[in-house]
Amino acid sequence: MRIRIDSELCTGHGLCYSVAKTLIDYDERGYGVVIQPEVDASTMDEARRAIMSCPEQAISIVDE
Amino acid sequence: MSTDDTGVSVGVSSALQTLDWFDPEFRERTEFDVYALARGLPPQRSERTGEWYFLGYEDCREAFQRADVLSNNWLLGPNPLGLSTVLPENSDGDEQREYRRLLDPLFGPKLMEDLEGDIRDYAAQLMRPIAAKSHCEFVAEFTMPFPTIIFCRLMGFPLEDHPQLMRWKDVYMNSMTPFIARQLGITDVDADGRPSMDAVRRLTEQSAKEIIAYLSEILEERRRRPVSDVISMLVAIRRPDGAPLSEDELIRICFNLFLGGLDTVTGLLSMIVKHFAAHPDDRAAFMALMDDPTRVGPAVEELVRFHSIVAIPRRATTDCVLRGAELREDDIIQVVTPAADRDDARFPGADHLDFERAPNPHLGFGLGLHRCLGIHLARRELRIGLQEIHRMMPRYSLDADDPPIVGSGGVRGLFTLPLRVGIG
Fold first, then answer.
1. Pick from B101, B358, B375: which is nearest to A14 by CB?
2. Each residue's pLDDT tens digit, B56-95
3. C or N terminus of chain B, fewer CB within 10 Å?
4. In angstroms, how far is CA B106 from the centroid of its own chain?
């Protein structure tokens, strides 16, 4: 399971990285950057919170 | 949690017939109670102004994401004050994207973190004399100067210039209202104290000259001797071809920052404190979590949703049908985020404050490419401002003999907020 941010949709609201610090950091523009793409049992909650937090619906979990 | 106090209730049909968001009379009459106009109403057209009002959450969301047919340059429409475009707000397409690429880092989370200490110091300095009194006027004494002083600090303007900046801001945003017209000393007014369009236009033009002179001088100073403020960073910007931004672009950008960052934060803080004054249970709930870094962020977002303050204009660039609205080219749409953010269909229990609300995809900072440039600064000001207010003044209430005066200017808010300090 991998978390990804769709860069076409992300406009840098910045809510994801405050709720998913293990998985997502931010760049100098305030856009989300995935720092830990692999999602496991210990980070699934964070991943879900990140997905829910995004007003642009730019975050998803993909099976890989 | 308790509900918001609804102000003057206006019959939906009568309000819609005379709907004009920017008419101070409409605002005074409804106290901005646009929540009565929401609840899933489809896009409405004002018979009076011809403008469209998007009110439901999904309609507003769609409007924000349709830059293909909706332009941010609404000044090509009716422009009685002869206002000039500002940047990047009034730009579109590749040009807009480029401005945001260049400007986002100046207001990104990393740089805004550096202001944390100063923001807290200013908040505490403003609160100290207030906390020592039994009464205060919280807009003039806190919510107005707070973001303005921070703005000066950020831009590199002398802090003692903040009263002049507040005055210029009021000319642009609020001079059509009797309350501010009186403060500005406009004498060409009708029996209700409303200034003539002519008087407002003349004052706006005069202020524009003064602001441009003020900005030009500081831009030149920073070119000669740069420091670490935003003005210095703006003059240091280079496009990929190595060219700096033109003087005209720099002035328009500074105008945008000036118009975007002051009344917005003032309005939000005023509305939040007014609500907390009347609803001590909500205030207590906030105070219980305000020092918890994992809980205060979502709480601030919920407060932004609950008190969403701006209607955002767009101009249709072509005939099209959008969410059922048959738009003609050049039609103006007002994306009414205060209505959208109270849409029960998207936010169950929308009239209740829920500091744990998740998801909370509110439109208080907009959506899409024009999402609020100052978002990281705004959140920080709100969080720190509210922390210091409640740390130093945990008890306060409204004054029954001196009720708040609802703002009727460019942004939702209050012109005055008299409080009894230490009681309630």
1. B375
2. 999 999 999 999 999 999 988 667 777 889 999 999 999 9
3. N
4. 20
Contact B291, B415 (CB under 8 A): no
Per the CB < 8 A criterion, the answer to whether B149 and B142 are in contact is: no
Q: Which helix (H) or strand (E) element contains residue B395?
A: none
Give the length of chain B: 424
Name the helix (H) or strand (E) containing B405: strand B405-406
Residues on B contacting A at a C-beta cutoff of 8 Å: 101, 104-105, 107-110, 297, 301, 358-363, 365, 367-369, 371, 375-376
CATH at residue A30: 3.30.70.20
Q: Is pLDDT at B185 greater than 60 in this prediction?
A: yes
CA–CA gap between residue B85 and residue B111 (Å, rounded): 27
Q: Is the peptide bond before B359 cis (omega within 30 degrees of 0)?
A: yes
Q: Which domains does chain B have, with CATH numbers?
A: 12-421 (1.10.630.10)
pLDDT value of residue B248:
95
Cis ω before B109 (30° cut-off from 0)? no
Q: Are B337 and B312 in contact (CB under 8 A)?
A: yes
Q: Cα(A46)–Cα(B278) distance, rounded to whole angstroms?
A: 36
Q: How large is the C-alpha radius of gyration of chain A?
A: 10
Element (H, E) at B336: strand B332-336
Residue B33 has pLDDT above 70, yes or no: no
Which pair of tokens denotes residue B20? 């004009």
User: What residue numbers bound the domain in which A53 lies?
Assistant: 2-62
The secondary structure of B233-274 as a DSSP string is HHHH-B-TTSPBPPHHHHHHHHHHHHHHSSHHHHHHHHHHHH
Task: Write the pLDDT tens digit of every residue in B138-165.
Answer: 999 999 999 999 999 999 999 999 999 9
Quick one: tokens of B148? 């303005």
Structure token digits, residue B384:
């720190």
Tell me the CB-side half-sphere exposure of residue B207, using CA atoms within 13 A.
23
d(CA B176, CA B339): 23
pTM: 0.93
Distance in angstroms (rounded) separating the CA atoms of residues A56 and B275: 29
Read off the tokens for B155.
């831009």
Contact between A29 and B105 using a beta-carbon 8 Å cutoff: yes
Count up the domains in chain A and report the number.
Answer: 1
B412 closest CA partner among B10, B16, B34: B34
Partners of B135 in beta bridges: B420
Is the CB of residue A64 less than 8 Å from the CB of residue A34?
Answer: no
